[in-house]
Write a structure and sequence with these properties.
The protein has helices at 3-6, 9-12, 16-44, 48-77. The protein is an all-alpha fold. It has one domain (15-77). The longest helix has 30 residues, at 48-77.
C-alpha cells in the first residue's frame, strides 16, 4: 500500500507527521500538569522517593513539550 493511501492527512488536512508532533507536544504538556498532582499527593504523604520520581518524570515531560513546541513553531511559521 502506498504512503499516500495510508496518509490520514487527506481526512484531517494535516500530514500524519505534523499531527503526530502536535499530539506528542500536547501529551507531554498534559503529562507535566498531571504529574504536578501526583507530586503533591506524594509530598502530602511524606513519600519523597515517589515525589522525586514524579519530579524527574515531570521535567522530562516539560523538556519534550518544549522540544515539540520549538519544532512546531519553526514548521508553522516556515
Amino acid at each position: 500500500m502506498s504512503t499516500e493511501a495510508t496518509e490520514a492527512g487527506k481526512v484531517t488536512g494535516t500530514k500524519d507527521k505534523d499531527y503526530n508532533l502536535i499530539w506528542f507536544t500536547e501529551q507531554c504538556l498534559s503529562n507535566a500538569l498531571r504529574l504536578e498532582t501526583y507530586i503533591q499527593d506524594a509530598d502530602r504523604d511524606g513519600d519523597s522517593e515517589v515525589a522525586d520520581l514524579f519530579r524527574r518524570a515531570q521535567e522530562a515531560s516539560r523538556k519534550g513539550g518544549e522540544q515539540g513546541k520549538a519544532l512546531l513553531s519553526g514548521r508553522l511559521t516556515g
